[in-house]
Amino acid sequence: MAEINHFEYGWITPALSYALSVLGSALGLICASRIRTAGSAGQRAWWGTLAAWAIGGTAIWTMHFMAMLGFAVEGTRIRYDVPITVASALIAVVAVGIGLAIVGTGRFSAVRLVAGGLFTGAGVAAMHYTGMAAMRLNGRIDYDTTRVVLSVVIAVVAATVALWLAMTVRRWLAIVGSALLMGVAVNGMHFTGMSAMSVHPHTRQGEVTGAGVSTLLVPIVLAVVFGVVGLVYALLAAPTAEDRAAAAYVGSLREREPAEATAVAAPDPVGLRARSTLGSPGTPFPSRRNDPPR
Fold this sequence. Notes:
Elements: E1 4-5, H1 12-37, H2 41-68, E2 72-73, E3 79-80, H3 82-104, H4 110-133, E4 135-136, E5 139-143, H5 145-168, H6 172-195, E6 197-201, H7 213-237, H8 241-256, H9 258-265, H10 272-276
Antiparallel strand pairs: 1-2, 3-4, 5-6
């Protein structure tokens, strides 16, 4: 059995993978909080998609491959099948998206939470082992059944907790604390699943085909950067509850008292409109009390 090293570069890869999982979890929780306040089905679908991308794509999938940068097997090179790798990313995003749809549609309940957690957890575990199936090396990969089952249980519990947090957390401090907890859960599931793996080298060494980790690193980093920037921009550009309330108030004023609504919508603090009416046809000049007698 070949020797496996999960931390070839020391603490750098696990630290970066944990940071990515926390970042993706925080952005996902913020987007998920917008689902509850969305005013239409289209807006709920939009925020649900962004939350699924943040949690499934960044917090789970990119964390997985960042941790894989430090994975090495003695005596063989490691390559990855690109189509299967892309499929693992889609599994993670779709699984989280469906889980959010289950708990976020209709009245929030324990039954919906358990159903969403089971589906999402199974999807996260499928993402992990699909990503591992994409790995190519000179050897046969085996898994310890007990640890595989344990990793699936961790994935289901972590997904259930993540969905519950997505539907209940509102304050910033709670979001940060929840993201830190989710990062621990995601990394715990990953390294538990990795510890279940063993590699038995082939007697005949053949050529290992596929994309190297360094080749995949550039598109993954670009996807993370553009994805995070896009999520932050969407959050900053979206109207807040106060903005919607103000717009509704001005709209109601326009229906009842157009003149008052115009004044509210376009204030005139220095009296420019009043001054502009002086001297216009049909507008009398104001009288002055101290005019000298004629």
